């Protein structure tokens, strides 16, 4: 290694700057009431959130991202219980970073095997314990029912950070936040805006990230010209879960399906790709025959979203191209979580403009 | 799940309110000297503590619990080393929550296998290391001699959070604190107070929680009309350890034993139950033939204490009854530990009324 | 255990006091520019550091150690990612204590098996994630190339806390800091100072601690009369790596080798001993035939350094002798790391005297 070259490089693509968050901030008018109402709400599913609540959350996230050093104490004196019974360093650190940036303290559980749960303690009793120890719980578990089992006993709010194959609501919010940062007019109420074509590479019925993303997409049908679900032949019969397609269509989203990604790419504005599906303690890979790279026939101004971590489906040669919005998406997830956590523990009034 | 019902419910039984802590606070007159003397004291055994020191600790715990948001900075700048070589999420989080609520920082060790100890490093050397890194150590280990091995090298105070089958002094303090919260007159010096009958379901010779609880009970013989040890037939010969029964009786506590829990229940004011005994890396279950439930013949105003986590010996159908003081006990443990930790690291003067 | 004797003893040998750091502080004149230039620098190897930068770092470390409670907020609002993919409680806690003492927050990774890396995620992608979550990374890994793989993607500074068998630069700095605390004239530019004879028991080609220590020694040849490398017969052929001996000699350090420790001891001022060499996931022991004890023929005023944890090569009967500077060395490592971390995250201006 050349020891003369160990300075870090702070140059970064525009997606890491503050121009996009500032534009998003301007595109939404503040209405703090929607944020104040999130106080003491559990966050289990995207279904809980209205379009306007989401808009206000994206606005607050954009305010945080546009002024990363301005709000350092809203969570002072608050304690987060970060319970990752299904280990996930990426998601855990994203939540913990969000909490620390706002001045709060954290207690982490990173291994289910060392807990009373392994000895047969009920999740209801664990929740009782949490009531005494902290002000908010972030839960990741491979059992999709764990969060429900805790709800009945909790007197502090809990946030679902991925429950088995079911949902991952803050991931979906972060996905949507990235999309609106990219083109803020999409989140506005402007009826003349240019709608987008979104391709989703994956199996909505099997992947919690895709399931949650489609749920949140259904709140913003006015932004979507068409949704194209791109899947392998073998998954055709199990593509959608019960009511999944109906929920989207009744919201007004036009859906098509395809098994030929490269045929679809030239007309897509956004490509959402993910290949991993968590199933209990293990995972399956779907659609590994689909691989995006700098050689893919993408529109010049198309962007790619990916919840990360990635596998072979997303080539690193895309990282330095303008198609790369997945890094911005990961970065924005921290600010989105900051916004949501602030509201859940009754501190929204410290950060909204007009109280 | 009904997504319209994900608000949390803050209604809670009175045991979580502030009426009881306030009553306890009034029942004891402050004498801060007893707390100031705890500065730089290790906490290994209940035996170290005088009756009056305990009374003052309970008073400070009650002050914290009655004003949970009033004291947020007494441990500012102090670092806790939370060393759980025997994993225990419940106890670890209770200590860590106590420390965080007072404004301190924490470094956690949750797994012995990743430490130098696993590679043969002596505990004396580990203690030397701790001297340089923090201001206080909380140690949980399945070897009862570990804490002694550290004492010789430590220049910062250490607190025993359970050493094998030996002791768990802060658990006993939390047990007693719950009992005094329930009926504050018991901690007063009033000679006319109504004494209580306490049943302990377990094997004092085998269980660290019971051992420590009986030790602390012997400091308050004026509160106890009778102690009934309820045990299975098979444990009759090993019920008490050396001097254990003698220590209680010489303190003035009348003891009886029984193998028929339901026959005893109608005349007990307090039932202390626990079925698990830690033995090295594993645990045994004692008295699983005894099971308390809402159908048990409890006195109307009897309370149940349990150090948790629970097994089949304590039915969940008791949770919503007034007999449930075990949740209050778990909650109070945080405030009790706050009181003790404050004193150990020389910050008592920041929280006592008159210095 | 005698329960009357659980107070801790704060008496400590002079090596833990503030006399030595204060003397070192006076021996170096402040030149803050060298510290300001460390902003946003990665720390991979001792080779990066000039003699004068090291002198200024030692000075700042001494300022911290001489006034341990004076600087409690320079890292307020900063988040450390403490990534110990190769578990090491000692080094992890030393870094985390340093960060906490300066008021920063921490997120820890203590187990590689729970991370995305175990699932095949590239270190480059992990580094991208870290950019969004923290302000500085401390990395320990058993793969010596891991840190290089991260460098290309990082926009926050990273510090090498041990990369396989390669280097451990902050350990070397802590070693040298201990040596200069012991005899501050050695760090001065005084040409009349009394040079020292240093014996190193170990295999420079195999041990990262020894490799890094010799690198830093080569920056201060004016302090060294002679360097004696003491090794077992079996290691004679592999004692030095490529250029390792040449680097020292071209810096002006006279080197000899020996296989008879006791014959060398009577003329050594400093003995640096270590027996463990990390090799991937495991370790080898070198030179276990060499054992220092209170019976060894040490000069009266000779000191012993050891990076710890120790094995049989360093007898505990030396702990209470004036030869013991290895405890001071471990203690000083915290302050040395405080100095380096402060500079890396652009907070040097908050602690230097003249800005």
Automatic annotation (TrEMBL), chains A, B, C:
User: Which controlled-vocabulary keywords does the entry list?
Assistant: Transferase
Its GO biological process terms?
'de novo' UMP biosynthetic process; amino acid metabolic process
Q: Does the keyword Lipid biosynthesis apply?
A: no
User: What molecular function terms (GO) are annotated for this protein?
Assistant: amino acid binding; carboxyl- or carbamoyltransferase activity
Q: Name the InterPro entries for this protein.
A: Asp/Orn_carbamoyltranf_P-bd (IPR006132), Asp/Orn_carbamoylTrfase (IPR006130), Asp/Orn_carbamoylTrfase_sf (IPR036901), Asp_carbamoyltransf_Asp/Orn-bd (IPR006131)
* PROSITE patterns assigned: CARBAMOYLTRANSFERASE
**All residue ranges annotated as the Aspartate/ornithine carbamoyltransferase Asp/Orn-binding domain in the record:** 195-343
A GO cellular-component term linked to this record: cytosol
> Does Nucleus count among this protein's keywords?
no
Q: Which residues cross the membrane?
A: none
Pfam families reported in the protein's UniProt record? OTCace, OTCace_N
Q: Which SUPFAM superfamilies match?
A: Aspartate/ornithine carbamoyltransferase
The segment(s) forming the Aspartate/ornithine carbamoyltransferase carbamoyl-P binding domain are 41-179
Return the similarity comment.
Answer: Belongs to the aspartate/ornithine carbamoyltransferase superfamily.
What protein name is recorded for this chain?
Answer: Aspartate carbamoyltransferase
Taxonomy-wise, where does this protein's organism fall, top ranks first?
Answer: Bacteria, Pseudomonadati, Pseudomonadota, Gammaproteobacteria, Alteromonadales
